[in-house]
Amino acid sequence: MFHFLLLLLLFILQISHFTSEKTTTITSSSSTKNNLVYTSCTNASYPKICIRTLSSYSTIKTPKDLAKASLNVSISRANKASKFLKNLKVKSKREKGAIVDCIEQISDSIYDLRKALFELKHLHKGYGFKFQINNLETWVSGALTYDDTCLDGFKEIDGNVRYDVKRKISNVAKVTSNALYLINQLDRSG
Ligand SMILES: *[C@@H]1O[C@H](CO)[C@@H](O)[C@H](O)[C@H]1NC(C)=O
Ligand SMILES: *[C@@H]1O[C@H](CO)[C@@H](O)[C@H](O)[C@H]1NC(C)=O
């Protein structure tokens, strides 16, 4: 009986040691990973959204990774918004027109964001860096302009459709605006 209790005690100690070790590793590694996200997001256009959308990326180790991830988020949100628009039930010709135009604008914006992500993945240090960063900034601000143009198309439309589209597209514009900020930061440091 005594042996059994001793074994049980040892077993419990072992488990608690293992668990505490595991927890400390997890907290320390995630806080080092996320530090860059938190500091870099501080002055972004939408800091909370910046942190929320980027802190789950375990691949972020440099400001360039951060900019890549932010473009990735932007592309994936734009794709979702586009699917949403394609599934909307329309009530009038006017609504249909605005939606068709918006789908086209979002598709153009995705094209620009993809170009930007490709360029960012092939960014050189030194010669040509400034030129590439300028291209990136042009494409990402272009994507933002498409989002605005889409929203403008709904100005004359009332009701739920306008509200839903506005919510989705503003969300895309916010993550894209954060991506532009993070790319601007690369420009400063490079
Ligand atoms: C954010 O902005 C403040 C005020 O302009 C500045 O002091 C700080 O260094 C900035 N932080 C980052 C990470 O850019
Ligand atoms: C980008 O996002 C997609 C999902 O939307 C994911 O599968 C992929 O791993 C991400 N890429 C990077 C570099 O984070």
From TrEMBL:
Fetch the SUPFAM superfamilies from UniProt. Answer: Plant invertase/pectin methylesterase inhibitor
Q: Which GO terms describe its molecular function?
A: enzyme inhibitor activity
Q: Where in the cell is it found?
A: Secreted, Extracellular space, Apoplast
Could you say which residues form the signal peptide? 1-21
Q: Name one GO biological process term.
A: plant-type cell wall modification
The question of whether Transmembrane is a record keyword is answered with no
Question: Where is this protein primarily located?
Answer: secreted
- GO CC terms in record: apoplast; plant-type cell wall
Keyword list (alphabetical) reads: Apoplast, Disulfide bond, Secreted, Signal
Start and end residues of each Pectinesterase inhibitor domain = 32-182
Alphabetical list of PANTHER family matching this protein: 21 KDA PROTEIN-LIKE, PECTINESTERASE INHIBITOR-LIKE
Name listed for the protein in its UniProt record: Pectinesterase inhibitor domain-containing protein
Q: State the organism named in the record.
A: Capsicum annuum
Higher taxonomy: Eukaryota, Viridiplantae, Streptophyta, Embryophyta, Tracheophyta
